[in-house]
Amino acid sequence: MVDKSGGDFSGSFYHQVIAPNVDNFIKCTKNWETAFDIKSRSRSHTSPNNHPELRALQAEIKSSELHLFHPGCLYPEHIATDLLTNGYNRLSSEGKLKTFTIMKSSSRAKFIAAIHKEKKQLGNLFPLQDIQMNVNSTSLPTPESHDNTYNFDSDSDSTSSNTSDSSI
Predict the structure, then answer these.
(1) d(CA 49, CA 105)
(2) DSSP labels, 73-93
(3) What angle do CA 40, 41, 42 make, to 5 degrees?
(4) What sign results for the dihedral spanned by CA atoms 82, 88, 89, 90?
(5) Helix axes of 83-94 and 96-125: crossing angle, nearest 10 degrees
(6) Where is this region: Disordered (predicted)?
(7) Is 7 exposed, middle or buried (0-12, 13-18, 19+ CB in 10 A)?
(8) CA distances from 156 to 150, 151, 153, 160 (A)
């Protein structure tokens, strides 16, 4: 809070305004606890029940693993249904799964075809033989091999066939 407000922690605002209010809030909660006869929360667990019958029953349940599901056992109150298989069967019987697969497949195929078409159009604009990835001195064209070369001097904007002045 001090860093965000640009103040100094030892400044008068913090000593005169914030510190007394924090102290009042702490006292206020203690006053409410005493006024309404509320116990303050403890930071530890409550003591376990010491009835020997309950402790023996808990030990028996734990040792028999009654709280765990065991395959092959019959549980008359609990009927587990395979919701995944039920949903799959329902989707396939209504034909929704087939139409979903066909729609997804056809839309993906159209998308891929559009990408290939775009690549072909870009390939026609920029042929791959004109693009050289590994450029070295032997792969550069010589100035004499071009019919039209441009001279970019400041005094002339015309084309010239003499390229012996220009350097690459």
Answers:
(1) 62
(2) ---SS-----HHHHHHHHHHH
(3) 115
(4) positive
(5) 70
(6) 136-168
(7) middle
(8) 10, 7, 6, 10
Alpha-carbon distance of 97 to 105, in angstroms, equals 12
Q: Per-residue pLDDT for the chain (168 aa), expressed as one digit of tens each?
A: 556 666 677 777 777 888 888 888 888 888 888 888 887 677 777 776 678 888 888 889 889 887 777 777 777 776 667 788 888 888 877 777 777 777 777 778 888 888 888 888 877 766 555 555 555 555 555 555 555 545 555 454 444 444 445 455
Residues 109, 113: Cα–Cα separation, whole Å: 6
- Residue 25 Cα distances to 13, 29, 32, 90, angstroms: 18, 6, 11, 60
